[in-house]
Amino acid sequence: MKNTIIWIGALVVGAVLGVLGIAWLNDVMDFVATVYTRLFQLLAVPTIVLAVTTTFATFGSKGSGRILGRTLIYTLLTTFAAAIVGALLYVVIAPSNLPYIGEAPSSPLKQGELEGVSYYDHILNMIPNNIVKPFLEGNVLSLLLLAFAVGIGLSKLPDSENKAVVVKGLLGLQDLLFLLIRGLIWTLPLGIVAFSAQLAAQVSAGVVADSIGKYVLVVLGGNVIQFFVVLPLFLIARGLNPIHVLGKMMPAVMMALFTKSSAATLPVTMESAENRLGIRKDIARFVLPICTTINMNGCAAFILVTSLFVMQNGGTTLTLGTILLWLLISVISAVGNAGVPMGCFFLTLSLMSGIGAPVAILGIILPIYTIIDMVETAENVWSDSCVCAMTDHDLQ
């Protein structure tokens, strides 16, 4: 409770500082926010690799199939639920077309960079041809493949002194990593002040555009319903108290809200699950790295709603068949998306470019995506927490 009060206080202080609109103060807050984001991203890659490797190496293949099965089932169920909620809201609220679609504002991703990108290339990029490259690029899918391979290989090796040394060394590195994470979490209120000030400054500068208010209402409304209604219903159905689970996972949810990266938040998510919620370590260190990569509730809803909005503005008639087809595409795309800031935006931009839809609309959406990305990342991490809690409950 004490930590929650401190975090809320930091949130309010940061918002006040951001609204003041003092240039040098905004620069300082931007610097602090960037430092925190980089530090958590620094810890994210080794967290993923060590968590999966040590889990397989020490837990072995015994029982891992059951854990993976539960994880995949709950991931698909919650992701489909999020996309369905988004589709229903889109039909009910029915955002109207924009009056005119001109040239897109400048975007960090150029049109030419999207040409030639396909799912064939996406799958190939998952297969590493250099053991160092995935670490340098932070390619989560490739790192997971490497971690799975090394972990399974260690679990299959006959017991020997060499195997024991390697496993103990990996476990020692993981303990050191979690010590660093706990230290970073201790200073988190300072980061929350900076993140909150950064957001308040953007909002006061006119980030939210009235011209796409209904679209924003659908996206954010879907995230809110998924967060506060759908996911708690999943927990209740498995005999878990959603208020208790959310209270224990609040540090991870808040960190996700401000970093806009479920991968960067993974160290906090694992720490909260193990030490606050009481999830078994073998479950948490197996499920959460996988969920960080494939369990993207908010991303699925964003891809679906944004794709429908862009296609509608491009003259496509949104029939039931079209909506169902893109619902499936959005879920598959979300599962393959990396948990990095703006990952869903770039993925949607690529999909829309591939079908010749008016991608200029995404340039109009871009200024408000910061807020959308914050909310959907928090939802993703909350969903990861729910999947982990339900899997742990099922296997007790």
H/E series, N to C?
A: HHHHHHHHHHHHHHHHHH
- Rounded mean pLDDT score: 81
* Rounded Rg: 21 Å
- Strand fraction equals under 5%
* Helix proportion range: over 70%
Q: Report the principal-axis shape.
A: globular
Uncertain segments = 100-117
Number of helices: 18
Largest sheet features: none
Number of distinct beta strands = 0
Q: Brief description of this entry?
A:
This protein is mostly helical and about 400 residues long. The protein is built from 18 helices and no strands.
Write the topology of this structure.
Layout: H1 2-20, H2 23-59, H3 64-93, H4 111-114, H5 119-126, H6 133-137, H7 140-156, H8 161-186, H9 188-204, H10 213-237, H11 242-259, H12 262-275, H13 281-294, H14 297-313, H15 320-335, H16 343-354, H17 360-365, H18 369-394
Helix pairs in contact: 1-9, 2-7, 2-8, 2-9, 2-12, 2-13, 3-10, 3-13, 3-14, 3-15, 3-18, 10-14, 10-18, 11-12, 11-18, 12-13, 12-18, 13-18, 14-15, 14-16, 14-18
